[in-house]
Design goal:
single chain; about 160 residues; alpha+beta; Aminopeptidase; 5 helices; 7 strands
């Protein structure tokens, strides 16, 4: 498994990956209808293509040569702060180091960042354990995870360097 920068040719696969992971992770929390709404807004091909073009950002995939197993997207939101917007791994690859590879590459890509921040659903215990394992700690909460007025509550985690 290696990590590389995502390209336009990966967008369809990434969109499918996000669809699968979101349904697997969030259907029981938000319901299928809400998950479909979020996928349409945040993980459509056009939304993902915009991420490819965003300055001061990194959009990655974990690839074994046959299949994309995970993806991550982060951007610089302030002079010394980077936000991890997405880090998702297909269920069959979870617990096998793919998330760690993606997270390490994001952190290395923003080596000057003093703060790395992310939002995580408070009921997503596996993700919370994952981020804590790699030095992130809860620093706040938000009522609007992922987008203004999303209405999705989440925990804010930060890693200070």
């Amino acid at each position: 498994m290696w990590v590389r920068t995502a390209s336009i040719r990966d967008i369809g696969t990434i969109s499918q990956l996000l669809d699968q992971v979101w349904h697997d992770t969030y259907d029981d929390i938000y319901g299928v209808e809400k998950v479909n709404e979020i996928i349409t807004q945040w993980h459509s091909k056009s939304a993902l293509e915009r991420n490819l073009k965003l300055p001061a950002s990194e959009f990655l995939v974990a690839d074994d040569g046959n299949r994309i197993a995970g993806t991550a997207f982060a951007s610089q939101i302030e002079a010394k702060t980077t936000k991890l917007h997405q880090l998702y791994v297909l269920p069959e690859f979870q617990g096998k180091g793919v998330g760690k590879l993606l997270l390490e590459e994001i952190e290395d890509s923003f080596f000057e960042a003093q703060n790395l921040v992310l939002e995580v659903e408070e009921l997503n215990e596996p993700a919370i354990r994952f981020y804590k394992k790699y030095g992130y700690s809860q620093t706040g909460t938000t009522a609007n995870c992922g987008a203004d007025d999303s209405g999705i509550a989440a925990l804010i985690f930060t890693k200070k360097r």
